[in-house]
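thread from #wetlab-drylab

HS: before we spend reagent money on co-crystallization trials with coenzyme A, can we at least see a predicted complex? here's what I'd submit
DV: go for it
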Amino acid sequence: MLELRPITATEVDAFIEVMAGAFYERRDPWHDAWFRKQVPLESTIAALDDGAIVGTSAALPLTLSVPGGRCAAAGITAVGVQPTHRRRGLLRAMMDRQLRDARAANTPVAILWASEGSIYGRFGFGPATRRLGVVCERPNTALIDTPSAGPLRMMDRPEALQLMPAVYDQLVSDRPGLLIRDRTMWDAVGADDDPHLPASEARHYFLIHGDPPDGYAIYRMRRSETHDGQRATALVVELTALGPVAEADLWRHLLALDLVGRVERRMGPIDDPVLWLAQDPQALQVQWKTGIWARLLDVPTALQTRRYQAGGVLVLDVSDPFLPEVGGRFHLQVRDGIGKCVETDDEPDLRLGISELSSAFLGQICFGALSRAGRIMEVSPGAAIRADRLFGWDPPPWCVDEF
Ligand SMILES: CC(C)(COP(=O)(O)OP(=O)(O)OC[C@H]1O[C@@H](n2cnc3c(N)ncnc32)[C@H](O)[C@@H]1OP(=O)(O)O)[C@@H](O)C(=O)NCCC(=O)NCCS
């Protein structure tokens, strides 16, 4: 018999076994420490078959930066089903329970990182941030001349952890899509014992810019021997700068490291300033990928947590096949950047699904593209352009934390 319920303290081991096994990962003390610190037991959902855990899911209580504000978010994580029990509807059942629980707790949005992009659209999630991968081959990546300030200081991790949060907190107040980090989350940033990293690449270096700090970079090294000697790749884990001077100084430093032939950043923002700092932008290898997926659970509340860069009125007819009670017709009026959203019977300007609205929530301008792709329907002419003006946000959303 199948049962769905949160786990108890005695079931944590079995839960982690199934969760790690679903991702073909070796069980490691790191998983246990992460789980015990971050995941409230009451937010877990286990699927049990005759008393044995065969499916797992949990929701982290997160706070997400949204355009001009912050919003409580359920961070869906630890989603896995044992290979013997797949494609029987377990994920669907767990997701239904997880999203209804979050909605009942007045959490207006759920977010997640998807292992595969084809899974979560059916549950109302839409891609809501992008991340940019940039590879700079050393000899081809000269930067334009810009003012420089410094100082730059290398620090050990405990020292750097004293200084980086203040810089990150300022970034969060400026850019949507980021998670507000508490001490527990910082404990996982730049940790050398992360089992997902090969041991030879696991050492993190911490570089602080400015005094008081206005930027930092965390990077790792992948070493390799070539016929001309050692040429390492510097792997940028995080680069946060509060202005163009810190940004350029940090990049310039990374690109000038001895014995380094290449600098790679996998999780940068889609508007990464290095695209504009490079003398020859064509020499950079650039690739964008989806970042976090978002899912609105309460449309009026979610749309009122964020600010808007233009004024106007828009009536949205939102369908939500997975959670019909979330859908409806909504009148959004924006004045002085503040949105007021209520249910309405007015004629709609746009008809769209909850996943498309969720994609636009954090400010990625996409209504026009969605309309051209036939994913949303303009009822009043020009509505997609008006929606883009309302919802678009600069800087664009970016999430650096995988959870
Ligand atoms: C992804 C996973 C959790 C799905 O669990 P499941 O119990 O097999 O999923 P369900 O049977 O409830 O499927 C629900 C729907 O999603 C679809 N689906 C499930 N997994 C899918 C996948 N990997 N790719 C595409 N579609 C998928 C099913 O076909 C089904 O479609 P339907 O709505 O048309 O019927 C499971 O395959 C798994 O553990 N995979 C490895 C770990 C992983 O990727 N976890 C997700 C982390 S974000």
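DV: Residues 22-23, 79-81, 86-92, 114-116, 118-119, 122 surround coenzyme A (CB under 6 Å).
HS: ok that's useful, forwarding to the group
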